[in-house]
Amino acid sequence: MTGAEARLAVDIGGTFTDVVVEHAGRRTTTKLLTTPEAPERAVIEGVGRVLAAAGLTPADLALVIHGTTLATNALIERKGALTALIATQGFRDSIEMAYENRFEQYDVFIDKPPPLVPRHLRYTVPERIDARGEVLLALDEEAVGALADELARRQVASVAIGFLHSYVNQDHERRARDVLARRLPDLSITLSSDVCPEIREYDRLSTACANAYIQPLMARYLGELERRLRALGVACPLFMMLSGGGISTIEIAARHPIRLVESGPAGGAILASHVAAECGLPRLLSFDMGGTTAKICLIDDYEPQTSRGFEVARAYRFLKGSGLPLRIPVIEMVEIGAGGGSIARLDALKRIAVGPDSAGAEPGPACYDRGGVAPTVTDADLVLGRIDPATFAGGRVALAPARAEAALAGAIGGPLGLATPLAALGVSEMVDETMTNASRVHAVERGKDLADRTLVAFGGAAPLHAARLAEKLAMARVIVPTSAGVGSAVGFLRAPVAYEVVRSRYQRLDRFDAVAVNRMFAEMRAEAFGVVELGAPGAAFTEQRSAFMRYVGQGHEITVALPARDLTAADLPLLQQSFDDSYRALYGRTIPRLQVEALSWTLRVATPVARPEAVGAPPPASRPTPDGSRALFDPARGAFVEVPVYRRDRLAPGARLGGPALIVEDETTIVVTERFDAHVNRLGYVVLERLEKP
What we know:
The protein is an alpha+beta fold. The protein is about 30% helix and about 25% strand. The longest helix is centred in the first third of the chain and has 32 residues.
């Protein structure tokens, strides 16, 4: 079979590895347990499995796109390389001083996140550049060379170089890199001016250290994955999903692996925005629940919210400021430890608590019968009848209900004097409440409302909990797209080849230097095009420009859209109006007679992605025949009730059914509660509509 347009996507999660191939209008998927000790092993197995099922060979593939949580996990679990930092003399403790504030004001035993680079591996050299980029003290190259012997003695594998104000003048960082590279050719070197050429020293150094920390690990993994795919016979380009929602080459990913953080969830947000356009619903809440975490993302005007900042490895659950800040382009979302593998326990007050720790793929939930003994959300869903143990993950993962019951009874039911189904219900309700609260906080922090939005649910566990989450959030509609269990991987196939470049250059609007700004954008454009043309040579590209602006004297900036062209002095009223409109949208007002300044500028280049047209009128309604029945625990009755079970692949567009019911497929199960009816739209998506107003 010829497969010139066959495209394959792989998403590695903390518990499952998802693989999707699309060819000739058909989609073939598989889900298998992640192999943490060698992640590429599950990838190769999954690729072989979906290609065989689709009747394709590795040579038929035209494109492979990969997203992974490995970078995130390495930062959270502190499993990166032995890393050193070289800073300007007198500034080695900047990454430990951080913002010099208390993110938890009333905790006298506050636990700050330890830096990735311990103090004994933080070195300094004499040099100094000012905020205008002028050299105040020349770089002491002999001091840099002397550090090479010390780094070798300590067997340092990677080093971050972060000098003051290098975002405006990279010369000293580049010269220091060249000195070390000549002496230590195998040393991985990260420059802060490469990964984060932005103002604010702590954020820049934190991002550089994080990139250096994971670079050897990710370079080895990506190299081994590429080698094994080539050995399998895959000759097509291999792209990596980036956290900002675009895809780029494996070479860029190996050099800047920090941009892979949150790459998997980014694919899910892209899928949700695609569903929004297909269904003509500009305002959605994306709900992605996998085996390890749940991700919530707001979709407005068919686009996910984006940001330039992200925190990883928070020491305090959900508390901003307690993690390691990263300044990278990201799709903005809240991620919480509430997945199928999240572990349930009783706290000191004998309250049920769930997560954030997860059983992962090894040993996995108790019901996997792979050595896990702690109860998890998946164990609770199995006991409640939401999961068929014989067909879980397409029947490739056999579940042991007795193990789940024993784990729940021992850790939850017994101590609380509850029957096992009620213990399972308690676990399910707690994880649903955790996700509900996270959704509300995420929306409120951004001045958004949830009640009039549609919930789009995907990921292996999300359809199991989506209806209950919608009830708690007073949302009237839930959409579960096709291949929901591998939704993030499907989203990869909708992503553009894209790259974003940022620069910090101070400009006041009343002294605006259009020539300097245009020169800076020309350099940024050349860099961005140099990256995207590697991934899509000869393709057409769109360009987006923006500035981070604020009133003079303020501490933080807002994002302001700019025209994608050279600017002139005549554009000053346009820039002022754009800032006023953006500021008013956020804060409801502007401040008269205050001057405006810009600190940073971004340019994003991407291949255009056509927005799909909204689906037409609903198809004629029909009543499907159930494929069987199963006992499902009914919270209102406190007992199991027999409910119809439908195979999703047998539900034609127009099919309508009432709850309670279960709609099953290989990668997930849709739980239709009694407060919802369900129907299948023209795209094959299952739509749950609430029977009464919230």
